[in-house]
Design goal:
It contains 15 helices and 18 strands. By secondary structure, the protein is α+β, with helices and mostly antiparallel strands. The protein has 3 domains: 121 residues, Response regulator (Rossmann fold, 3-Layer(aba) Sandwich); 86 residues, 2-Layer Sandwich (Phosphorylase Kinase, domain 1); 180 residues, Transferase(Phosphotransferase), domain 1. The strands form 5 sheets. A 6-stranded antiparallel beta sheet has the order 8-9-10-11-13-12, covered by helices on one side. A 5-stranded parallel beta sheet has the order 2-1-3-6-7, sandwiched between helices. Helix 2 packs parallel to helix 3, helix 9 packs antiparallel against helix 15 and helix 12 packs across helix 14. It is globular and about 65 Å long. The termini are far apart. The structure holds adenosine-5'-diphosphate and magnesium ion (MG). The site of magnesium ion (MG) has 3 residues, from loops. Magnesium ion binds next to loops.
Length: 414
């Protein structure tokens, strides 16, 4: 059996056993946002094998399982692993005393009553997983330093890159430090990372993260930018729901002016989506993540967009012909605008193909149909979402102008 969960420099891992895929997926998403790696299983035997092969830092097990119960399952784990078995949180439909007592007797660490709230999930995991207590969201770098940067906490962990909150004696205030581990990445990823750095160095705008410096420390490449103290728009919409027209208007104006700035530097962002937008109290909406960005005339890089972009926000011309220009970024921004008005993703497709078809057939709600929406704002959003780029705004500057006109005239709903 590997000793994976005792390794301090690895992110925390949680194994989930439930047949309720939707609940499992929700838990996985909440964990991912906090840099906790998780894997879900619906079959007790398969899950047992996974736990034995590579013990996680914690288990989340549904009380109701096919052909067994959480208590029996955890007993089997304890039989195999003994005292060193990972702490187990039981998912239960109710907080019935008898069930709780039996589970505690079997050694379960805690309970999560369905539907599980993110706050309770994280609080209970922190209680039982020491690694999660070490810093805000998860683990920090083993030496707490990368070059001269002092790591405060790990913010996000992707497949290849890790984003830290850090400080540096040369800069005032916290920084966001994006790092790429050389040994883990392929050439393409490395080139993309370098391109992100190259593009960012040219940019300075109140609604973009400001580049500070880039370098390499041991086997890691890194670059630092100012830390935006805000919430990602995807979490805001998930937790708070739809935003009022006035707020959507302000965010869209901020973002459109950032995009206009990019386009003036001949840069296409190509990955405008709620997860790459941060909402901060003092700076408003800030666009981050230039990992897919490219120079407008850089033909070499076409093609990569389709594979790694997020389909829901990709303009039809990129999906169909892989033709991207400034107006494709405007389509993505339109989709973000519509999502802010609706409070949820405008297209609910099961797979890439379904989403692709719905975008091509314009099978998503019109902004003007959203109850109580400001008419002029809805017209702007619907125009951004036109299938033919010729029918959209032709430049981000035109869009900024239109949004500013609405702001001065005031928002009115029909
Ligand atoms: N400058 C920043 N300040 C604060 N948080 C940031 C900053 N840049 C990115 N983030 C957060 O980290 C997440 C991951 O960063 P991102 O650049 O999007 O990396 P990835 O390429 O892994 O998507 C973002 O979605 C955002 O929530
Ligand atoms: Mg991103």
């Amino acid at each position: 059996m590997s000793s994976g969960r005792n390794t301090l420099d690895q992110p925390p891992r949680v194994t989930i056993l439930t047949t309720d895929r939707e609940l499992g997926a929700r838990i996985e998403k909440a964990l991912k946002q906090r840099s906790v790696i998780s894997e879900q299983s619906a079959r007790p035997n398969e899950c047992l094998q996974k736990v034995l092969d590579n013990p996680p830092d914690a288990l989340i097990v549904d009380m109701k399982l096919p052909s067994t119960t959480a208590i029996e399952f955890y007993n089997r784990i304890r039989g195999e692993v003994g005292l060193d078995s990972p702490p187990c949180l039981i998912l239960s439909d109710s907080a019935e005393e008898e069930i709780i007592t039996r589970a505690y007797e079997a050694g379960a660490a805690d309970f999560l009553v369905k539907p599980v709230s993110t706050g309770e999930l994280m609080a209970k995991l922190r209680l039982h997983v020491p690694k999660l207590r070490r810093s805000g969201t998860g683990h920090t770098d083993r030496f707490n330093k990368i070059g001269a940067f002092k790591i405060i906490e790990e913010l996000r962990r992707g497949n290849m890159s890790v984003l830290y909150k850090a400080t540096h004696p040369r800069y005032e205030g916290p920084l966001a430090l994006k790092t790429l581990e050389n040994k883990k990445c392929d050439l393409d990823t490395l080139l993309r990372f370098r391109r992100e750095v190259n593009l960012l160095t040219h940019l300075e705008h109140p609604h973009l993260a400001k580049f500070c410096e880039a370098g390499r420390s041991r086997d890691r490449f890194y670059f630092a930018m100012n830390f935006i103290d805000g919430r990602p728009l995807d979490s805001v919409l998930e937790e708070d729901g739809a935003l009022p027209s006035q707020v959507v208007l302000t965010h869209l104006r901020d973002l459109a002016s950032a995009i206009a700035h990019l386009h003036r530097h001949n840069i296409l962002h190509r990955d405008i989506k709620p997860a790459n937008i941060l909402l901060s109290n003092d700076k408003g909406a800030v666009l981050v993540d230039f990992g897919l960005a490219r120079h407008i005339r850089d033909q070499q890089l076409t093609g990569s967009h389709m594979v790694i972009g997020t389909p829901l926000y990709i303009a039809p011309e990129c999906l169909e012909k892989d033709q991207t220009d400034e107006r494709s970024d405007l389509f993505s921004l339109g989709m973000v605008g519509l999502q802010m008005l609706l409070g949820k993703a405008p297209i609910d497709g099961k797979n890439l193909y379904e989403i692709f078809n719905r975008i091509m057939l314009r099978e998503f709600p019109q902004a003007k149909e959203v109850p109580g929406v400001c008419n002029d704002l809805a017209t702007v959003i619907d125009r951004l979402l036109e299938i033919d780029p010729k029918d959209r705004f032709q430049s981000a500057d035109d869009l900024v102008h239109a949004l500013e006109n609405i702001r001065s005239a005031g928002c009115t709903a029909s």
